[in-house]
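Researcher: I've been going back and forth with a colleague about how Natural product might be arranged in three dimensions. Neither of us has a model we trust, so I'd like an independent prediction. The organism is Algoriphagus alkaliphilus, in case that matters for your notes. Sequence below.
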Amino acid sequence: MKKLSLEMLKLSSEEVLERSQMKSVIGGGRFRCTCYNSVGSWTGNYSDKATAEAQGGGDCASGIAQCYEIIQ
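Model: Here is an independent structure prediction for Natural product. You can compare it with whatever you and your colleague have in mind.
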């Protein structure tokens, strides 16, 4: 997972970050995934939903995962 520095965003010191910008600084979001048509589930940090679901190919017997982002 690649982390970005605040300097790379080129923000003024008093500018407030939007949710999407904050995710890019910390490297993504937290996702809850379950295996489709097989047994298994996990929670992990991924850059986006597609990356989280791609992990299902190795973690699920069916090779298919369904994930959703956990909003905190």
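Researcher: What would you highlight for our discussion?
Model: I'd start with this: The mean pLDDT is 76. After that, consider the following. DSSP finds four helices and three strands in the chain.
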